[in-house]
Amino acid sequence: MISRVVLALALTAPPAMNPAMNPAMTSAMTPAVNSGATPGTAARHPCPVAMPPRTTCGFLEVPERRDAPGRTVKVGYAVRVAGAGEADPLVFMGGGPGSASMDAMSVLSAMFPDRDVVTVEPRGGRHSQPSLACPETAQALLGQLRRPAAVMAADGTADGTADGAIDRAADVAAAALRCRDRLREEGVDLRGYRTQEIAADVVALREELGYDAWHLFGVGYSTRVMLGVAAADPGGVRSAVLDSFLPMGAGRYDGAERDLGGTLARLGVGERFASVRARLNASPARVPMTDTVLGRAFTARVTGDDLAAIMAGALRGADVAAVAPALVGGLAEGRDELLRPLVDAAGERLAARVWGLYHAVQCQDEVPFNTFTPKSRLFTINADKAVCDAWQVSRSEPANATPSAPVYVLAGRYDPAAPAATARSAARALPDARFEEFAGASHAVFLTSGCARAKITAFVADPATTPAAPCAAPTGPGDLHVTGAPYLISRSPWLAAPFAAFALASLVQLVSGALRGRAPAAFGGLAGVAFTGLMAQSAHALAGANGSALAVGVPGTTGPYTWIAVASAVLTAAALLRDRGWPQIAATVIGAGFLIWWFTWFL
User: Which residues are listed as membrane-spanning (predicted)?
Assistant: First the structure.
């Protein structure tokens, strides 16, 4: 549900035979390798995740620091060969910093069936060696939700909230220092993990694989990487696609509150969210969740500012943005059970990030471009600043590179991480760029918009082509009846036992009533079967249209459908007047119990 969409590149390729496991097959599917290219040495290895057919994986060995040669690191990559295709290949990197790239191979292969597709992992990422995982940092960040900020004003808006958030960030900095010291003992030099080096890795990979030129595809953070590649290797770049463009020097931290507020305003819930935030700052909500690092359950205490930080991450998913009006509306009515899916998703996101790489990049390439005044009230921002102050690896990267190749910039209307206005302004500064904003989309537009994928494919095929008509805004989830019950059932299916018992009893009553010629009993069973069938069908359709909708509520048709269940219970009770046997008594009791459960808990 929500947890499936807030992870920007959490795509799993379908199970498939992995050619990399069979050396006899890989030799026929691997592109020509220039064994004498420098710098870098490539070597194949089994793919770490399931991949489409004709895909091989490898490591590119490169210097950890090109400005101080010595130690080398291995950059993971995957190549899906198109077969007889002669078109220039495409290379993709995930965002983050630190999101896995290989997980998107199945989507990219479907988009570009006639050209080779290469996915390259960032150095230090999950599928590279070494991987700069910092479970210490993840654990400390999860700990931020164990207790609210130490100082609270009565209205939840005073500076004390920010001061308390900064105090909590010190715990994260201490944990990150332990991770830094451990990585240093392993020989890692964090100064080698920055955008300029990551871009150089992509250039080295093209040379090592023997491609004359290719098309670049970056999303979120990696749009910076791809701009660096285009500027450093102009002869090897045909075009660049920048999805959710995040220009260097945009002041991401300084603008975080403004960008979140702008997204909420465009969704029409700015004022309601502000009231929810103030309420939770004054009286934090207690939300059960699981520490995904240790696997232990605990009760999170979520303040309004914590919720704002969580929403800033959650709204990167277009599915979440589509249900945000219903979600915020429910929270404004005091339905704090709706916090559970948000908090669970945030916990999964915090545990999944490769924090060593993330902070190495942020401390060198993002923090120097921010002033951090006034003080932020978002614990995620304060934690990043505290870590960078403790690590002392800050250095300022050069300004945004200017590529000579054609560029296609995409932005989602509801993206709080890479706002469309920022991307539009940055695109104007590029000499040969077109910009397009997608209604209804958020971060990583290509993952949720088939129209955007078609436009990207057309641009790569012919960067000079005339842009097609704008994509139509996707249809929303429709009217929702807000309730947290479906999400709780998804976590603990036994909670749906009353619904299952009612469905089974209705079916038995329908069959037995029809066979025995008992019309009230038969019609009561028929109404119950119709209700459960309609509810199951509408919930399935809603989940198919929006993966996050059932975490917020059920279709608005639930209200009218409920009257069918009531009619079933009334007819069942009426049948009891003629048949006082135990089967009819049981059906009546189950129907009455179901309605109590339905009205008092589910709805």
Answer: 494-515, 522-540, 560-577, 584-602
- Where are the strands (E) in 220-294, listed by range? 237-243, 285-291
Are the beta carbons of 311 and 342 closer than 8 angstroms? yes
Q: 273 and 292 in contact (C-beta within 8 Å)?
A: no
Q: What are phi and psi of 574, to 5 degrees?
A: -65, -40
pLDDT at 393: 81
pTM of the full predicted structure? 0.86
54-131+193-250+397-461: what fold? Rossmann fold (3.40.50)
Tens-digit pLDDT profile for residues 554-581: 998 998 999 999 999 999 888 887 777 7
CA nearest to 81, candidates 103, 104, 126, 114: 114
Q: Which of 474, 546, 448 is nearest to 8 (CA)?
A: 448
Provide the pLDDT confidence category of residue 548 given band limits of 50, 70 and 90: confident
Q: Which of 240, 197, 174 is nearest to 432 (CA)?
A: 240
pLDDT in tens, 244-283: 998 888 889 999 999 999 999 999 999 999 999 999 999 9
**Contact criterion met (CB below 8 Å) for 72 and 122:** no
Integer Cα distance of 415 and 336 in angstroms: 24
One-letter amino acid at 295 equals: G
Maximum Cα interatomic distance, the chain, rounded to a whole number of Å: 91
Burial grade of 25 (CB within 10 A; 0-12, 13-18, 19 or more): middle
Residue with tokens 């939700």: 145
Q: Report the C-alpha gap between 529 and 320 in whole angstroms.
A: 32
What does 97-162 look like in DSSP terms, one character per residue?
TT--SGGGHHHHHHH-TTEEEEEEPPTTSTTSBS----HHHHHHHHHTTTS--S---TTS-SHHHH
Tokens of 224: 């910076």
